[in-house]
Design brief:
This protein has about 170 residues and is an alpha+beta fold. The chain has helices spanning about 5, 15-30, 40-45, 115-125, 130-140, 145-155, 160-170; strands at about 35-40, 55-60, 65, 75, 85-90. The chain contains seven helices and five strands; from the N terminus they run ααβαββββαααα. Strands 1-2-5 form a three-stranded mixed beta sheet. β3 (about 65) and β4 form a beta hairpin.
Length: about 170
């Protein structure tokens, strides 16, 4: 998979610099053998709702960090890569350790993207207005409600009611 091809549907709404940051960050993570997957607004766009975003977000494996608690400390090779608000590397939340299975070290030239179910879970968990708008937009573009509900029941059942509310708020409902 060519990362440029994966991101090409976003070229009309996302600045070229942001798309390049996504490709370069994934390339660097791959070189360092850090399992990762694109999340956030770029992943929302890849899954069917292209929208403007100014940052790149990756969910990354623990190998990206010297330590996670009490303070998150990146490996020395990654410290210069991260630019808070521009390029963010997020650890897998401890209570969602199974999401680590969605991460991988891709082949050269590939750009791993979190699946739509896990993306919905992360958005539901964050519960900010943009996250709600993203999930509602994905629902209206065909996000499989049954598949997401089943995924939430397995991984975070407390979010099922919130997802139901967002489904009801969708024009597709």
């Amino acid at each position: 998979m060519n990362p440029g091809h994966t991101l090409s549907p976003l070229a009309e709404v996302v600045a070229a610099r942001v798309l390049l940051d996504a490709v370069e960050t994934s390339r660097r993570l791959t070189e360092l053998r850090v399992p990762h997957a694109l999340i956030g607004g770029l992943a929302v766009g890849i899954h069917g709702h292209p929208r403007a975003t100014k940052d790149v977000d990756f969910l990354v494996g623990d190998i990206a960090f010297e330590r996670i608690a009490p303070i998150l400390v990146f490996r020395a090779e990654l410290r210069d890569l991260v630019r808070v608000g521009s390029i963010d590397l997020m650890p897998v939340p401890a209570e969602l350790a199974d999401l680590g299975n969605a991460l991988r070290v891709p082949a050269a030239g590939e750009l791993p993207v979190i699946g739509p179910e896990a993306l919905a879970l992360l958005k539901l968990r964050a519960n900010r207005p943009q996250d709600r708008a993203d999930v509602i937009a994905l629902i209206s573009r065909g996000l499989d409600i049954g598949t997401v509900t089943a995924f939430l029941q397995r991984h975070s059942p407390d979010l099922v009611p919130r997802f139901g509310e967002w489904v009801d708020a969708s024009p597709a409902a």
